[in-house]
From TrEMBL, chain B:
Segments passing through the bilayer: 42-62, 103-129, 141-161, 167-183, 218-247, 267-290
Membrane topology classification: Multi-pass membrane protein
Subcellular location as annotated: Cell membrane
Similarity comment text for this entry: Belongs to the binding-protein-dependent transport system permease family. OppBC subfamily.
Organism: Tigheibacillus jepli
Upper classification of the organism: Bacteria, Bacillati, Bacillota, Bacilli, Bacillales
Sorted UniProt keywords: Cell membrane, Membrane, Transmembrane, Transmembrane helix, Transport
Claim: Glycosyltransferase is one of the keywords in the record: no
InterPro entries: ABC_transport_permease (IPR053385), BP-dependent_transpt_permease (IPR050366), MetI-like (IPR000515), MetI-like_sf (IPR035906), OppC_N (IPR025966)
Domain ABC transmembrane type-1 per the UniProt entry, residue ranges: 101-290
CDD domains in alphabetical order: TM_PBP2
Stated name of the protein: ABC transporter permease
Taxonomic superkingdom: Bacteria
Length: 541, 303
């Protein structure tokens, strides 16, 4: 029933949106500026407000409860992590922690914390707060990322993080049950933002609607399915934001969102239709901001389902039957064809893997060998809203449908909204399904372990929606996790990619450089490869 | 009243319907002539005829295979090779629209067929038997009418699952109340007439009276409603397909074509313009014809 109400709401919302978009553009901005001068009597030129237009609303503002970009892109403004990434890559730099070290056996991590940080609610930030947050994350299984990154399960809620202790007022020590090479990069992920324990206690169940962190912006208001407003944190310990306010506005339709950008009611937008890039480039008021590529779009084949998809030969044949060069032209220049599950920008990428060559005849021969000379029917589950790694899911699906028809495979496209799609694919309802992944921490583990390891092929919360269970791959990935030497890890990951290529649980489709479009008055917008960035450096002139 | 039908009465009662039929035939011819005289309804008829011909001879008219993709040729503006241009996958828009007429006609006929059969049955029963049956049926119809039609259709498809067939069923169900109300009203007035009383007097059963005497005399408003409903049904089904609840890819349904092409609204407007025009024309055609039909069949306008 969830899907049905979702669709219904979407439909109603879309129709309302047209009405609103048609009649409220001008009055909206006027009202804003009026309010601004009232609120900010001291500012001579009024407030600087950045309006960010996006395709979907946040689900929750507690980063430990979500995995979706639309939630994390907001929480990254409100929360800080122990360490954080460089603005342009996934190199780690100090944040709440000023320095850190790891014991020789790789099991003990010690972080020295800043002593001058306050939460937005005025309470001081100490080592005890870090411990409180980790213990909170370890008590329930809702923190999906925690499970992905630290191998936590229902039976072992702690995963590999054995102990978290405050070894001083401003020092915290982690004891791991086994070495974990990506650990430092992992705690820099925005999902591991440190929340105010006082606020968590105060709001209880409602906390995710009243987020309190230490970050550059303070939560102000959330109107569901409309907008989220944040204001500047004047006492931020890092670089204090140049903007006074940030508004995240939900506008589901890419075209409608683009029109709002053109008319100036929003300042930045994601999910630009590739066809509109030229329009932006030809517009004196607008600019394209290209996010560095660290993602992959793929079609997973459900190896767990009885029937053709369980057969390696069929999966290889499908890889051969899709003309990737043709397919990639549908990305209109924002994507490159993929042959591996991890993007080429990541270390450990195996460029020696040779992609399956487009060869429908060979594909047919393979299908015949597998006993499917006459073809078969399959479902292809797709999501309706464009994602950064796949700007046109339905068009891409129709192209694949037509290509597979030539080798007698009849594809039935099943389109649903994002939530429903995730629920269906995590439960393995599909034969084939589109999905993609944007790297969170710049470690190959974050792709290969999360998306292809048997540990993550659990019905109901699967990251591995091909339900591909290979012990050989599991051993390689586990070895790579406990190995601290990057050189050696890189070799292991290269081997893993060969294995995945041979077993073909996926049709890797593309790595994209997702375009954002912005008004030219927006300065210093540095898009981060992980898909989200704090706006404290952004300015409006 | 007549417990033993006398043999003499038999030929007399046989004669009456025959005469009636002749009169009716004359009425139909009259009406048709009257339609032809009205310019607007003639245009409507023309559009419908064109639509039927297109659907019938689609393979001959279409210049390309409607499903054939040529990705390098995507978003081509109208030209000699593709007279209405190509869409996001390089498919010929003209050929897709031509094949789409088949789907639209299918939707129109089947959806209206569903509303008509169920609606006439319910309306007929409610009007003829009256009392509590009338109350129950008409209150259900009232409830159905309380929903905005497209919302009810969306809800129905959401329950049945998105597909063209289910969209037709949903649109058909949504149309039932219209027919039920019209038929009930007509039946109410017809059943009080003398010839119905006469039929009852000679011992005809309820089913026979309803089927042979009442309903045929309610035909005119039903036909008008059916014609008008076809246009609405096509429009509603296109709306469902636009939302992804109707025709599934790669079907060249017009609403789905609109939906798929809207990403390129600014850069390749022809992708949505032509299917839009097609929907507009067909709905206009049925509406004009339906209006003309209503005028022609309305006895009050008879001169």
């Amino acid at each position: 029933m969830k899907k049905k109400t979702g669709l219904l709401l979407l439909a109603i919302f879309c129709s309302l949106l047209f009405v609103v978009a048609a009649c409220s553009n001008d009055t909206g901005s006027k009202k804003d500026s009026g309010k601004n001068t009232e609120a900010e009597g001291s500012g001579s030129s009024g407030e600087k407000t950045l309006v960010f237009g996006r395709g979907a609303d946040s689900i929750q503002l507690d980063p430990s409860k979500v995995t979706d970009g639309e939630s994390l892109n907001v929480t990254i403004q409100i929360y800080d992590t122990l360490v954080k990434y460089n603005p342009e890559d996934t190199e780690v730099q100090p944040s709440l922690a000023t320095e850190w070290n790891v014991s020789d056996d790789g099991k003990k991590w010690t972080f020295k914390l800043r002593d001058d940080v306050k939460f937005h609610d005025g309470t001081d930030f100490t080592a005890e707060d870090v411990v409180y947050n980790f213990e909170r994350w370890q008590t329930g299984a809702e923190f999906i990322y925690y499970g992905y990154m630290f191998g936590a399960t229902e039976d072992n809620l702690k995963g590999i993080v054995d102990k978290v202790e405050a070894t001083g007022d401003y020092e915290v020590t982690f004891t791991l049950s086994e070495p974990n090479a990506p650990f430092l990069n992992t705690v820099a992920m925005s999902a591991f933002g440190i929340a105010s324990p006082e606020a968590i206690e105060k709001y209880g169940e409602d906390y995710s609607k009243h987020p309190v962190g230490t970050g550059p912006f303070v939560f102000e208001e959330w109107v569901p399915d409309d907008q989220i407003t944040l204001k500047k944190n004047e006492d931020y310990f890092g670089e204090v934001a140049k903007l006074d306010k940030v508004v995240f506005k939900t506008i589901p339709d890419n075209g409608a969102r683009f029109m709002e950008l053109q008319s100036g009611t929003i300042d930045v937008m994601n999910g630009l239709n590739p066809q509109d890039i030229q329009t932006v480039e030809g517009d004196d008021n607008l600019q394209i901001i290209r996010r560095p590529s660290m993602n992959v779009a793929y079609m997973a084949m459900n190896t767990d389902k009885e029937g053709p998809m369980a057969d390696k030969k069929v999966r290889q044949a499908i890889n051969m039957a899709v003309d990737k060069e043709q397919l990639i032209t549908l990305f209109e220049g924002v994507g490159k064809a993929a042959k591996n599950p991890i993007p080429p920008s990541l270390w450990g990428y195996n460029d020696d893997v040779e992609d399956y060559k487009y060869d429908p005849d060979k594909a047919k021969a393979l299908l015949a060998e597998a006993g499917y000379a006459d073809g078969f029917d399959v479902s292809l589950y797709i999501f309706s809203n464009p994602r950064d790694y796949m700007p046109q899911p339905k068009v891409t699906a129709q192209a694949i449908q037509e290509m597979l028809k030539k080798v007698n495979i009849n594809v039935k496209i099943v389109e649903s909204d994002w939530d429903t799609h995730l629920e269906a694919t995590e439960n393995g309802k599909h034969d084939m399904a589109f999905l993609g992944w944007t790297g969170d921490n710049g470690d190959p583990d974050n792709f290969l372990y999360v998306l292809l390891d048997k540990d993550n092929a659990k019905m109901g919360s699967a990251g591995n929606i091909a339900f591909y269970k290979s012990d050989e791959l599991h051993d390689l990935l586990k070895q790579a996790q406990v190995e601290m030497d990057q050189e050696k890890r890189s070799d292991l990951y290269k081997k893993a990619q060969e294995l995945v290529h041979e077993d073909a649980p996926w049709l890797p489709i593309a790595h994209t450089t997702p375009p954002l479009a912005a008004n030219k008055k927006v300065k210093n917008y540095q898009p981060h490869p992980t898909g989200g960035e704090a706006f404290n450096l952004v300015d409006i002139q | 009243m007549a417990f033993q039908p006398e043999p003499v009465q038999e030929p007399a009662s046989m004669l009456a319907p025959e005469k009636q039929a002749m009169k009716a035939r004359k009425m139909w011819v009259d009406s048709l002539l009257r339609i032809m005289k009205s310019k607007t309804s003639f245009i409507g008829l023309l559009i419908i005829a064109l639509l039927l011909i297109t659907a019938l001879f689609a393979p001959l008219i279409a210049s390309h295979d409607p499903a054939a993709q040529s990705i390098v040729d995507r978003y081509q503006p109208p030209s000699g090779k593709h007279i209405l241009g190509t869409d996001e996958l390089g498919r010929d828009i003209f050929s897709r629209i031509v094949y789409g007429t088949r789907i639209s006609i299918q939707i129109g006929l089947i959806a209206v067929g569903i509303s008509l059969i169920i609606g006439v049955l319910l309306g007929g029963i409610a009007g003829y038997f009256g009392r509590w049956i009338d109350q129950v049926i008409m209150r259900i119809i009232d409830i159905m009418m309380a929903f905005p039609s497209i919302l009810l259709a969306i809800a129905l498809v959401a329950v049945l699952g998105p597909s063209l067939r289910n969209a037709m069923i949903a649109v058909g169900i949504v149309g039932i109340p219209q027919f039920a109300r019209i038929v009930r009203g007509a039946v109410l007035s017809v059943k009080e007439t003398e010839y119905i009383e006469a039929a009852r007097a000679i011992g005809a059963k309820d089913g026979r009276i309803l089927g042979q005497h009442v309903l045929p005399n309610c035909l005119a408003p039903i036909i008008v409603q059916a014609t008008l409903s076809i246009g609405t049904a096509i429009l509603d089904a296109a709306g469902l397909s636009f939302l992804g609840l109707g025709a599934q890819p790669p079907s060249p349904e017009w609403g789905a074509m609109l939906s798929d092409g809207r990403a390129a609204l600014q850069t390749a407007p022809w992708v949505i313009t032509f299917p839009g025009i097609a929907i507009f024309l067909v709905v206009l055609g049925f509406n004009l014809f339906g209006d003309g039909l209503r005028d022609a069949l309305d006895p009050r306008l008879k001169q």
